[in-house]
Every structure is written in structure tokens, then in C-alpha cells.
Amino acid sequence: MNHSNCHPDKKFAVVNPSKICQPMGAVQALLGVKDTMPLVHGSQGCSTYMRFQLTRHFREPIEVASTSLSEKTVIYGGEFNLMKALKNITEKQTPRMIAVASSCLTETIGDDMAGIVEKFKDANLDQDLPVIIPVSTPSYTESHVEGYNRTIKALVEHLAIKSVSNDKINIITGIISPADVTQVKDILKTLKCNSIILTDTSENLDGPLTEETLSLYESGTSVEEIEDTANSLGTVTLSKHVNSAGVFLEKKFKVNSIAGPLPAGLENTDEFIKNLCLLGDYEIPKSLEKDRGRLLDAMVDAHSYNYHRKVAIFGDPDFVSGMTRFTAEMGMIPSVVCTGTKSKIFNEDMDCISREKEISPVILAGGDLYDMHQAIKERGADILIGNSYGASMAQEENIPLFRVGFPIFDRLGAQRISTLGYQGGIEFVDRITNTILDFYYDEAGYEIIEQKTKEEVEKTKKSQYSTMEEI
Amino acid sequence: MEPVIETFESRKKHMCVKGEGLSIPVCDKASMPGTVTQRTCVYGGARIVLMPITDSIHLVHGPIGCAACTWDIRGSKSSREDLYKKGCSTDLQEKDIIFGGEKKLFETVLELNRLFNPGAIFVYATCVAGVIGDDIKAVCKKAQKITGCRVIPVQSEGFQDHNKTKGHWIGGDALLDYVIGTREPEKTTPFDINIVGEFNVAGDLWGIKPLLEEMGVNIISTMSGDSHVEEIAQAHRAKLNIVQCQKSSNYVAQKMKKKYGMPFLKVNFFGLDQTVNSLREIADFFDDEEMIQCTEKIIEKGLDEVQDKIQDYKERLTGKKVALYVGGNKAWSLVRAFEELGMDVMMSGTKNGIREDYERIKETVRDGTIIVDDANSTELVRLLKKYQPDLLISGAKEKYISLKLGIPFCDFNHDRISAFAGFKGFVSFAKEVDASVSSPVFNLTSTSLYDISNNLNSEKNLKTEKSSDEALSPPSGGDKHES
Hints:
The structure holds two protein chains of two kinds. By secondary structure, chain A is of the alpha/beta class.
């Protein structure tokens, strides 16, 4: 296997990162919770730049409050600001829940967030307070994936209560697009599987044009649903990296837990359905078999265009391993795969997929886009799969970028991109094959044999990448 | 006096109406904890001032988030390198927090220099780098000695202030302390200038530069749009600084005046009048007959070209109301430009304004204009709902708040897509404003299916009424009378 963390040229610097910090993951998890205010305990930049990225990806208003720390805090601690923030939110926004994520600053100065929250509750015993949940998300360890993991765990840790058993399955989605949450929910519906989605961003981050979307989220997972997770039949986590909540529920409440894989492609979706059936007694309806058949049909229809096309993939670890398996199923050759998050699980996953599919991609776990670019130069790629930050790399290599993941700010519709389940798989197969057709075939769909002239290459580049109007 | 909108008691005086009472809102105070503030941090302020220097590596010394969220967000265009677009970080880890990050920073600088051979490496301090006490200055000094590349410390710990304006100053200080005055130009002319506070967002600089060059002015450096470090190093030999973004860059001009005796002019290339005035002021400053005559010709030609092209837009836009809620400079510099399109600025506000900024706004806007300071997102929603402007001018975070309310929006911040400066820029400006304000989609935003079903019901009722009326009414011919 070709595992490495980075290119041999470069040992220390991160150049063009493929990961973000823990508080960003925390906020992404909280955007799927109903009637909740996320609060980041740190400098204003932490919440503001995060909102900037989230807003331009989802093209929705994103509300994240800040404790607005300044110099005094570093000396005296952030207690005053946090107490004040909890008070202000409680009084003016009246949410059902406030979730507080820490930042590198407050972790380093040693603010005891849980203690401060208790103090706030004690000081306001006479009041009807929202549920307040602190999450420790230091930005200098791990990545946004771990921030998401810790937040989902904190939610169930604080809220789950054993009462009457229900017939539900807890689904921890990981960081996936709102459209993919819908795909997962559709499968559950088809199976007649009742579920609790942790957390459900499908409506909150793909809202209609109405001013109601400007206040706290009316949709998403409710506090009551999170409480009820202790009584479910089981938990299926779609990402192996965000499994802490599942493990916690299993240990404390004996709710069986299965982690992964991300249902990307045929085999992984099969496995997801198998996992659901292991936990509950579901009958597979004909319609689901039909959907599966349609995905197979799409794959067969597309095979001659994408067979042996080299593909390079970057993003979150479970997304990358899911996409690697899927593209290999389609007959493509994953040549370079990269995740910014360091992960042993990812390496094991990739080893397994490589053996099974007889592929040998360069595997970068904890790499950045500079490392990835060097590897693409060495190994070659016909198409790049990843977020908008791959645009310049694709342009330089003169290959198309298939945009999926986070963030996508230079094209519309990021919230509506779906790749998961059989239906999402069909969309993926169609779209990626059409991208290949657009790039490598002429207008009638015949392969372009002659070398593209320089002008043609320039033209393609321009139509692909120019987002700003030239003057 | 009645408060502008309902909000926290302590926030009420942050909003006022010009002409009623004080006319300048309370400002330059820390944001309230727990609100969704539109403000950012000192690090962000410093970075956006320096980020457009195209031949430099901008290295963020901190955990990954600070670099990952601010990488290539400026929208500044380059005619040359694109090194400035890279997102570089020391990616501090837990052990660096405990044992210090200086060694890692040093190695990272060396490595980046080897990989990219940049004009300079700017090293930004973040919150956590400040708290653990890394001596960034010392590391930069040592690294510069070894590499021979300019390694410039930027002491921009995010928590330093509630206001990113301090970050702008810190960014300016980095240039003043380590770059400006460190290289002599090969040749000088009597008409040498620097353009300060122009960041070439969407290519604005390219609307200004040709006008100045045609006048006969020689541009030594731009700070910092589409610039090279070695050009800025020669800036001390200019005869004049012209300052476009007065929010971020008056500071640099003032300091250069003190240090080098270099005078400065506040200019504004947004809008026709302002462009004309700015060009004339520069020509007047040099007091050169040839230049003055040439400038008049440029102005005549520029205005001629624009007038025909904006008539259509102007007709559609006249009488429409604009609300500005921006980072700073644009809160006053855009007012006249909108008035030239026949529009009425009914609200102006900034996120990080200091008293001086609000005085500029007050001077510029007419009586009755609402002036707001540091409105958080809840307040912004209330302002928009209560005063219903036909257009909001702001940045990405506010965009979808406005659109969800069915209020047209233009991004005049980092995500702006066309250049607005100078004569040609004014046409793009009019075009883009028109594209938002006059788009027919906003006629549809307040409709709903319920309206249709209600209409359907009333139509049905009308029909039944009508048919029952018909049934009751006497047949024509006045039979009833007869019977």
C-alpha cells in the first residue's frame, strides 16, 4: 500500500488544507437540531468565518452566536462572557436548547465550561431555562469530523433517558448533504423503519423562501427525540469516525450499535440495509429492489464511458472511502485518495477496498491538497472528485472537477447534491458520466481522439473555472 | 425619542436617525455576548489588508480553522502570481500548545520558502499562538536570516479587540515596520504616487489604474491589491499617497506622512462625481498644467462613454430605496453613487465603525437616514422588515437574510463579482444593482399557494352568488312587473 501523510517534499507546512477545526464540526451537527442556538465560546472570528463558509455553501442564513471574547478574557477567563451570552440568548431567543462549543482559545486558557454552565443554572433556579449542553471542541486536535463526533455524543450523553422501549433505529448521519439525509430517510421509509435521525439537516439547510427560516429552526431533530434514543432498537452510524454516541448508547442503555459504511454505491448501500435488518425486523419491499436495479441499470449504461478512467478523490475520510469503493464498482481506477483528517480507520478501510477491488491508489491520510496535487502529477487522474477548493488543481492538470463535499461556493445547489443510497447513486453515476462526456467526448458523444488544441483546452478551462467577470 | 427598532436596552442607542437628536450612534463597543454578531476578529482584519499581495505566502500560525476558514476569501484579482491564494497553516497540535510552536513555525517557514520561493512570507499570530506566548518576531528574524526571504511577523492575535479595525492597523504596521522604505526605486518621476487601501476586489484597481496612468501619474505601489512586496518596499519615495478605503488605510497614510512627510489625499472612485473629483484633486495636487488639461479630457471622455449606457438602468432604479450595511468605507463612499442612479439611501451602517466613521456617514447621508452600528442578525431582520428597502448592500453572511425576506441584495464585499471603480466600473455597478432590484423574481416572493386557493374560493363564491343571483333575478323583459 502507498500510505503516507504527506509528500516527501513537505513535512511541516499545511498548504491548502482538506480539513477544518472541531468547532466547525460541532456547528454542522447542531444545524440539524430543532429550536437550538449554537454558541461558540471564543473570539468573534471563530463564529463569523464559520458562518461565512457555511452560508456560501448552503446559501441559507446560518445563525451561530459568539461569546465575543476579547483581551480581558485571556487574563481573567471567559466566565463573565459565557454567563452573559447564556442569559442573553435565553431572554431574547428563548430556544429549547443552547449548545456551547469551546474553541482553542478557551481550551487553552482553561475555562471550565461545564462548571460555568452549572453556575449559570444555579444562579437562575427560578427561571425556566433552555437545555444547555457544553461540548469540548479544542481546535488543535483532530478535525471537524471529531468536532461532529463529540457533539453528537454530548447530545445523547446529556439527554438520552431510558423509559419505554420504542421500535426506532437511531441513525447518526455524519456530515452529509441535506439531500443525502433525505435519501437515507427515503430508504428508511421504504423499509417501514421508524427512526431518529441525528441530526436531521434535510429541511433546515435547504429551506424554502420564507422569513420563518430566519428564526430558530422549526424542523430538525427535537430534544424529545434525542432523549428517546436510549429506548431504540439500535443505532446505525453512517460514518465510522463519528461512532462515539452509538458506543455510548450501547454501553449505557444496551442499544446495539453498528458503525459504517457510508451508503455510497451499490455494495455499501446493500450493507446499510443489511445493518438495519440486523437490528430490526424489516421486510425488504419490491420497490427497494427496483431502486437497486435502477442503480445497476445506470451503472451498466454508463460503464463504457467511465471504465478505467482514473479518479482522484478528496474529502472527509468516510466520504473518500465510500467514493473509492463506488467508483471502483463502476470500473474506474481510484489513483489518488486524500483526507485531511489523520485516521487509522481510513487506512484500514482503504487497504480492504484496495485488496477487494484490486486497485492501488496513493493513500494520503492527514494530507493536504498540495500533497494530493503532487501525487496526481505522479499518478495521473482523468477526473477529480471533491469540493470547490479542488478547482485550481483541476485547472492546472486540465481535468474536470466533480464538485461534491464541503465547501462548494463557486456553483449553486450544494445542499441538493446527493450521492447516497440507490437513488443518490443513480444521480452520481449520471452526473459524473456526463461530466466525463462533456470533457472527453465531442458534441455527438464520440470520443475526442485528436489531442485537444491549445485554444480548446483554454476554452474548456474558461467555461469550467471562470466565475468572475473579466474586465 | 422612540427607538429605531425593538432590541436590548443597551443596544437601543446603537441606532439613530440623522437629524433627530444626536445623529451619531453609540459605537466602538464590544458586541454583546450571545448575539449573532456580524463582526470578525483582529486576525481577520489584518489578513484581509495583506492578503491581496500576490507574490507572498500568507502563513497562519495557529490551529487549522483560522487558515481553513479564511483562505482565498478576499475576491482580490491578480494580473501576475497566485501564490496569495494558497491556504497555509502551521496546523498547531496539542503538543505544540504545551511545548510551544516556535520550532514548528521556523521549520514551516523554511519549507514554504523552499517550495514556493515567494516575495515574502507573512506570519500571522492567532489567538492561541498569542496565549502560549510564541515569540513570532524572533522566529521570523531568524528565518529571514537563513532564507534571505522577507519573513514578516503580523501580531494579529484575534482576541485583542472587539473591532477588526485594530487588525487593519496591525496589518498596516507590518508593512510600515518591515517593508516600506527598505528598497530604493530605480527611477523616480515628479508624479510618483502610491494607491493605498485598494484591494483589487473583482478587479477594481484595473478601473482606476489606466485613468491615472493616462493623466501622467506614475504608480510606484498599490497597497495591497495586485501588488508585489518589492514594489511596496519602494513606496516611501512617492510624492503622494491616495487613499481609497479610508476605513482600513488612513492609518498607513497618516503614519507615512509622519515618517516620510508624504501628503495624502482621500479619494473615492465609486460613482461619477466622486471619480471626477478624485481625478481633479490629484491633478490639482501636482499643479501641472499639462496634467490638468489631460485630466479634463479624460473626465470628458469618461463621462461621455458612461451616460448613454446607464440611462435604462437609471429609469428603472429612480426612486428606489437602498440600505447599506457594510464593513466600513462603503457606508459613506457608495452613497453618492446610488444617488447618481436616482436611488435614495435610507439606511447606512457598519459592523466595526468608530466615531470617525459615523461622522463621515452623517456628513454624507441626508436627514431622516437611519444610521446603525454593529447590528446583529436579529436586529438586521427587524430593520429590514420595518423599513422595507428595495435593496440591501452587504456581505455573504447577510445575503440570505435579505433574500429570505424577499429583499433584493448585492454583495459588495469579498464575493462581489464585477468591478465598480472608475467610469467603466460605474456602468457595471448600475448593471448589477439593476439586476437585483429589477429582477421579476422579487414580484413573486410574497405569493403563496394559499393565495391561489383563497382566490379560488372567492371566485367559486362569486360564481355561486352569481348563479344564485341569476336564479333569483327576474327574467328580462320586466315580467315581474306584469305579474
